[in-house]
Structure formats: structure tokens, C-alpha cells
Design goal:
The strands form 3 sheets. The protein has a 7-stranded mixed sheet. The protein is 20% helix and 29% strand. By secondary structure, it is of the alpha+beta class. The chain folds into 2 domains: 2-59 and 213-264, no CATH class; 76-208, no CATH class.
């Protein structure tokens, strides 16, 4: 199998184990079928902006050229800090884009790996968001009508829990196996001010996720296509947006969005 194209975030199918797909050019690669095989990932040296498509000498913010990184709504400050979103006020880098993407229902969620973290996502990104973060369990905490409110809830809880995933521990499968997310949800809801507590979700479904990994490494080493343009190893698993190779080397596929590669297996 040989495929050439630019990398982007892997798409997923929520069944256990999670199914991963990588689109390269006209080919949609079922990556789960490559696990246990030696693969070669070769960077051609070309990078194309994931927003405007122009060739760029360097990737900014997961695949953007500098102009799009500086000016496009896809990289507005409220992407990282949703509490700053102004879509509900009719404002933003591109008000029409903000209206389409952020003036719509959002979820605040709890996701468990080695710790429980709080996060924000659109209503159509569950459980995809949890899969991309490599969580092994997730639950919806609150449902709000627009992004800024979700950010306000997240900020209220940051003093009590993390909003980031420890990617090294996640890739070693260091998880909270016995965490009760329903009890944790009830605990953290009580930490919110009254005006935010009203958005508590009645949905207590716990989503559990299993990833296609033959064996988890005891130690992980991150690879970069800029420093290692040709990677040739046995693929032993996928979790989050990472390829896991024999020996514990890993590469974040999403981080290399826009990089043109040839995949040979």
C-alpha cells in the first residue's frame, strides 16, 4: 500500500476498539489494518496551509500559514480560551463564521485519563473530542446555548481540576481505572456559582473507550517530521491522534497537519 497526500487530523469511528482513518490525497487509509506491520512515513518537505491551501515554509498552529494563523477565525483566541468568545455579541474575527461555529449548543465535559479534566466542545463533537484526547471515559457535565457560557463554566472549574491531558501518561495507559464519573460530575457541579449550575446536563451516560494498541510502552519518545523526515518502524497502536511505534516512539499526526507525506505499508 502506498499513499501520498497532506496529513490532517485522523477521522474516527466510535466502536470499541476505536477505528481510525487517514485521508491522503484520494486514498482513505484504514489505519487499524496497519497495526502490527512495518510502515514508512516519509515527509516530502512540502507543507500546505490547512485553511487557504497555500504552500508555506513553516507550519503554525497545527497546519496554518502565518497569515491564516494571525488572521483566520480558525485560530482566534476563543478557540483556546472559549470564555473570550464574542459570537453571542455578533463579534469576532469573522462574525459569520463565529455565528456558524460558536453560536450553537456546546457541552462542558469531564474526561478521564490519569486524572479527570474539564473541557469544552460543540454538541456534535461527542465522543470524537474524547477520542482525540485519548480519554478512556467521558461524561457530559453541562449543556449551554453558546460557546462563551461553556468557557465560563470551564474557567470556574480550572481552580479545582486540570483542563489539559498529560499526553505521555495517556500513551503509557496510566489511567484512573475505578473513577466514578457520575459522582465526580455531582461533586464539581456543586463548585459552580448558581448562575452556571442551572446548565447541568441530565445526561449521565458514561462513554468508555478502548483503543487499538497491541502493547503500551513504558516510556515514550516524541518524533517530529522536521527532525526525522523518514520514519520506518512497526506500528503497534493508535491512541488520541498519536501513532505508537515499537520501542515507544510516537508521533502526533494532528500536530503535523499540512505536511505532505508518503505512507508505505
Amino acid at each position: 500500500m502506498r499513499a501520498l497526500g497532506t496529513l490532517d487530523k485522523m477521522s474516527t469511528l466510535y466502536i470499541n476498539p476505536v477505528q481510525y482513518f487517514l485521508t491522503l490525497g484520494n486514498d482513505k487509509v484504514a489505519v487499524n489494518e496497519l497495526i502490527g506491520k512495518n510502515i514508512q512515513l516519509r515527509f516530502t518537505g512540502n507543507i500546505y496551509c490547512t485553511v487557504c491551501g497555500k504552500k508555506t515554509y513553516k507550519s503554525f498552529g497545527e497546519g496554518m500559514c502565518f497569515n491564516c494563523f494571525s488572521n483566520s477565525p480558525e485560530n482566534a483566541e476563543c478557540i483556546i480560551r472559549p470564555e473570550l468568545c464574542e459570537a453571542h455579541l455578533g463579534k469576532g474575527r469573522d462574525p459569520e463564521w463565529e455565528k456558524k461555529m460558536h453560536l450553537r449548543p456546546h457541552y462542558v465535559y469531564l474526561a478521564a485519563t490519569n486524572a479527570v479534566k474539564v473541557g469544552v466542545t460543540r454538541e456534535d463533537q461527542i465522543p470524537t473530542r474524547w477520542i482525540d484526547q485519548g480519554a478512556h471515559k467521558g461524561i457530559i457535565l453541562a449543556e449551554v446555548p453558546y460557546r462563551q457560557l461553556a468557557g465560563a463554566i470551564e474557567v470556574s472549574l480550572k481552580a479545582h481540576m486540570s483542563d489539559k491531558t498529560n499526553w505521555q501518561r495517556m500513551l503509557k495507559n496510566e489511567v484512573l481505572a475505578d473513577i466514578d464519573l457520575v459522582k465526580e460530575k455531582d461533586r464539581v457541579i456543586d463548585l459552580l456559582p448558581d448562575e452556571l449550575r442551572q446548565y447541568k446536563s441530565a445526561n449521565n451516560e458514561i462513554v468508555e473507550l478502548i483503543y487499538p494498541v497491541l502493547a503500551y510502552p513504558g516510556k515514550v519518545t516524541s518524533l517530529s517530521l522536521d527532525k526525522t523526515p523518514v520514519i520506518e518502524m512497526q506500528l503497534t497502536g493508535i491512541r488520541g491522534q498519536y501513532f505508537i511505534f515499537e520501542g515507544g516512539s510516537v508521533i502526533n499526526i494532528r500536530k503535523h497537519s499540512g505536511y505532505e507525506v508518503e505512507l508505505i505499508a
